[in-house]
Amino acid sequence: MVDHLFLLAIGALGWGTSLATYRALAARNGWPMGTLQTEQPVVPITLGVVSLGLGIAFAAARGGMHGGWVILVFGLALAVFWSGFLRVGAQTALLLAPFAAGLLLLGWAATLV
Question: pLDDT tens digits, residue range 19-63?
Fold first, then answer.
């Protein structure tokens, strides 16, 4: 059995962290940035922080004994991989972070009803 909410939380946390930190990393390391990140940096940073926050909230709701710590560790590992190894490809987090966060929010809300 696959725990889809668990995987979406890792994605939201990892891609959100990558998105929120990409501008700073790109400026420091001389990586190229997209138009949105250079002209309106508030938009990607806000999307990243919201996705990151939702992933952390889900991990906290799960608790440490039910995978919360694993979500945090794997999410941060995804962020390091996504930003560090993909570099310019990390900008795909602009699509992936809000998508994962939205699906996580919908799935989490469905379990609360």
Answer: 999 999 888 988 888 888 889 999 999 999 999 999 999 999 998
5-16: per-residue pLDDT in tens?
999 999 999 999
Please answer whether residues 55 and 21 qualify as being in contact, where contact means their C-beta atoms are separated by less than 8 angstroms.
no
Contacts of 68 (CB under 8 A, 6+ apart): 59, 60, 61, 62
Q: Within 10 Å of residue 110's Cβ, how many Cβ atoms?
A: 9
Q: Token pair for residue 83?
A: 């930003």
C-beta of residue 101 within 8 angstroms of C-beta of residue 94: no
